[in-house]
Amino acid sequence: MARSVLVTGGNRGIGLAIAQAFAAQGDRVAVTHRGSDVPEGLLGVKCDVTDAAQVEAAFAEIKEQHGPVEVLVANAGITDDTLLLRMSEDQFARVLDANLTGSYRVAKHAASAMLRKRWGRMVFISSVVGLTGSAGQVNYAASKAGLVGMARSIARELGSRNITANVVAPGFVATDMTDQLPEKRREEILGQVPLGRYATSEEVAAAVTWLASDSAAYVTGAVIPVDGGLGMGH
């Protein structure tokens, strides 16, 4: 049966692969974006997750077009990398607001309809960096680690209503951004990955669609790494 799915930041990269994977299953899929094009077959909703009023308006629009959100994928995020001693308060706060507080905003909105239905799936897109740390990414790693605590708290709060909350933690994924890295840096990265290659966006999407499926109905509060073994032991 087709479900109402929302993927934040689902107009490009990993988010787009996730949105398209749900659409291929026959789900009704909405994606948030901040003004760029949205591929055919997806409902594009302009929304900046750092703006509570825009989030509220986005959920109202999705409810009208597709019905209340039943599957939420909190994927929208930004980076602003620099070393700790150079990092400004604004750089830290901006990344936390987009990646962590933005996920709280959409989860809170999604939860009310899921509670009424007594069914729901939330998947938060974190990163291997949230578990291992990364020099120059104090703000980003903190925001991605925070998603684990958020998801696990939601899992405990809402589990009795048949609502699951899980985390997918991708490692290095082949995207336009990684394609632009110098060859030497690409080799250094791959040298750390036991499988010796980047993930594809589709491999990350497969983990997300599984967590939202009936097959994963008894999985909640989990952190699923899709990182080629990079973060083992975390």
TrEMBL record:
CDD domains in the cross-refs: BKR_SDR_c
Name of the protein in its database record: 3-oxoacyl-[acyl-carrier-protein] reductase
Key words of the record: Fatty acid biosynthesis, Fatty acid metabolism, Lipid biosynthesis, Lipid metabolism, NADP, Oxidoreductase
Reactions that this protein is recorded to catalyse: a (3R)-hydroxyacyl-[ACP] + NADP(+) = a 3-oxoacyl-[ACP] + NADPH + H(+)
Keyword Cell division recorded: no
Quaternary structure annotation from Swiss-Prot or TrEMBL: Homotetramer.
Pathway: Lipid metabolism; fatty acid biosynthesis
Function of the protein: Catalyzes the NADPH-dependent reduction of beta-ketoacyl-ACP substrates to beta-hydroxyacyl-ACP products, the first reductive step in the elongation cycle of fatty acid biosynthesis.
Enzyme class: oxidoreductase
EC number: 1.1.1.100
Taxonomic classification: Bacteria, Bacillati, Actinomycetota, Actinomycetes, Pseudonocardiales
PROSITE patterns xrefs: ADH_SHORT
Domain (Ketoreductase) ranges: 3-176
UniProt family annotation: Belongs to the short-chain dehydrogenases/reductases (SDR) family.
Position of the signal peptide: none
Keyword NADP found: yes
PANTHER family on file: 3-OXOACYL-[ACYL-CARRIER-PROTEIN] REDUCTASE, SHORT-CHAIN DEHYDROGENASES/REDUCTASES FAMILY MEMBER
